[in-house]
Design a protein that fits this description.
2 domains, alpha+beta, about 50% helix, Beta-Lactamase, five-stranded antiparallel β-sheet, single chain, 11 helices, Arc Repressor Mutant, subunit A, about 20% strand
Length: about 270
Amino acid sequence: MAAGQSAAVEAAEAATEEGGDLTNKSVVKATVLLSELGRHRQGITVTEIAQAVGMTRPTAFRLLLTLEQTGFVDRVDNRYMLGWQMARLGRLADPYAGAVARIQPVLDEYAAKLKEAFSFAMLRGELAYDVIAEASASRYLNVTHMFVGGTYPLHASATGKLLLAELSDERIIKELPAKLESYTAHTITSRGALLKEVHKVREQGYSVIDDELEEGLFAAACPVRDSAGELLGIIAIQGPIQRLKSERLPKTIDQLHQAAEDVAKALA
């Protein structure tokens, strides 16, 4: 069971019982079902989804039937999946507006605390993402360019290395050429050397670039995961090598991990 989904249902029920909140627990449960359906592109049975989110089968069936009647859920044989209404509304919605509103305060807090620039990239595919939020530091020597809406090269960015670490070595070999583009004298340009770097990222749980994308730039990144462990996005800190690559780096990485947890909570 996904802890975040179960907590959402329990919180709604508790608030209703105490009379201190106007949350409709049926709506909360319906959104939990929709979120779980998003994890199963080929569909899932009512029994399976009820077990996955911690609901009784009759409750899950009743909600799925209602959602099916309104187009938010489709059913093929005995398997349920997201419906056409979800796709239609998805095309109309700003995919990041709500997320940015939740994430920005966290980035601002850590940028002020560490006095370095922070950014957050939202995942939209195995190797696809968008930088959706940034926070600048209060230093004269600072990473000041805004990169919201952009992406970084996979092999020469902390964000890209983390994305690659989610894939198998075989998939990386398939996706990347043997010779990689060079951006500085320190860019990793050999696919074999990059694979060794990716192995290191998997072991330590974070990634860094050291003078690899731009001269003098150091960056570190940590994954942001949901309650089920799925990768949602990546938070990164960027700054001059002389400041970030120092004896304080281990403490900075610890704070970056904490920032990643805070972003995950904000998105939950």
